[in-house]
């Protein structure tokens, strides 16, 4: 006959196995994400994705989050639902360490290089001034008093919070979040939505808006409207050179990728340097005040001043010294001639 302690161990082990064997749909319903479970099972393409090995982590919006009003099986909704999952199994302890971590999602509608998926970015310290939750949702949910375990950034720089982490299911792990991620849009649309009208206007007048929206894998530092008003942009020869001096080509610099001391060459050929001080990020002397605005072809960060091109070091020409040497030699010769005549 088994002892009570043995029976307890068997019971615990059986319970553990049962928890790990729970299917995704049942796990979502048990965690309060029934609406999300219904959405992903209503579309055969999305259901097939979520039940495959391509999903290791599910960021499931809680039922009290804003309801989806998109038509079922539309391309936009499919990308939105794909965006709520990542391929890797991301445990909370692996993604909540500063300075954060970019996560590959299953959203494949991104212009960030062949074979690369769209990303979301965790930001444990949230030191760059972004709002603490998705725009427009304050006061609309009953779960706003739930503590945030981690902020995750998506399109427009909007962020959602993990409010319950580490729910296991038979294909990976579920984190319950307080809203859906925001689908990334173009750079010009993102700047417009976020009110960066000065940058957008200058991009249009310099005929760069379309190319910035379509060029793959860029990082753009957007000066705020106040930054443009306070700047002396005469250091740039044209508006296009000013805009180009704020874009890094062929590099998607999410905040965790901007390491202290890193230097980059901008599209305009100028050099910029990243400095990190007490959790604040500076590009030359411009401070990032809103970070990780994921765009369709990279990422944008808002900065508090225009990045002025660094002046080249002053090089004193040797020509004047040589000329002085020649003149000194001439005067010495003249002096000698005069002296010889006087003798």
From TrEMBL:
Start-end of Polar residues biased regions: 82-91, 104-133
This protein's name: FAS1 domain-containing protein
Alphabetical UniProt keywords: Signal
One family name in Pfam for this protein: Fasciclin
GO BP, sorted A to Z: macroautophagy
Source organism superkingdom: Eukaryota
Signal peptide range in chain numbering: 1-21
Record domain FAS1: where: 183-307
GO cellular component: fungal-type vacuole membrane
Coiled-coil segments on the chain, per record: none
Disordered: annotated span: 61-136
């Amino acid at each position: 006959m088994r002892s009570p302690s043995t029976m307890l161990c068997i019971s615990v082990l059986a319970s553990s196995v049962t928890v790990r064997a729970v299917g995704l749909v049942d796990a979502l319903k048990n965690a309060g994400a029934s609406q999300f479970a219904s959405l992903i099972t209503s579309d055969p393409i999305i259901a097939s994705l979520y039940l495959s090995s391509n999903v290791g982590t599910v960021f499931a919006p809680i039922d009290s989050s804003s309801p989806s009003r998109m038509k079922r099986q539309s391309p936009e909704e499919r990308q939105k639902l794909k965006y709520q999952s990542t391929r890797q199994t991301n445990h909370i302890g692996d993604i909540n360490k500063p300075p954060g971590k970019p996560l590959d999602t299953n959203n494949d509608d991104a212009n960030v290089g062949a074979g690369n998926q769209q990303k979301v970015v965790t930001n444990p310290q949230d030191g760059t001034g972004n709002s603490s939750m998705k725009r427009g949702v304050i006061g609309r949910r009953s779960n706003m008093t739930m503590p945030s375990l981690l902020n995750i950034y998506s399109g427009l720089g909007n962020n959602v919070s993990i409010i319950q982490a580490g729910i296991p299911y038979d294909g990976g792990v579920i984190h319950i979040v307080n809203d859906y991620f925001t689908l990334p849009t173009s750079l010009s649309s993102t700047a417009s939505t976020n009110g960066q009208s000065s940058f957008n206007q200058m991009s249009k007048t310099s005929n760069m808006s379309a190319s910035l929206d379509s060029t793959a894998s860029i990082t753009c530092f957007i000066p705020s409207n106040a930054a443009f008003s306070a700047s002396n942009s005469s250091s740039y020869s044209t508006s296009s050179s000013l805009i180009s001096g704020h874009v890094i080509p062929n590099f998607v610099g999410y905040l965790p990728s901007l390491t202290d001391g890193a230097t980059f060459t901008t599209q305009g050929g100028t050099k910029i340097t990243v400095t990190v001080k007490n959790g604040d990020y500076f590009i030359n002397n411009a401070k990032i005040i809103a970070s990780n605005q994921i765009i369709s072809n990279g990422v944008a960060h808002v900065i508090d001043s225009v990045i002025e091109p660094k002046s080249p070091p002053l090089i004193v020409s040797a020509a004047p010294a040589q000329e002085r040497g020649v003149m000194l030699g001439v005067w010495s010769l003249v002096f000698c001639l005069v002296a010889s005549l006087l003798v």
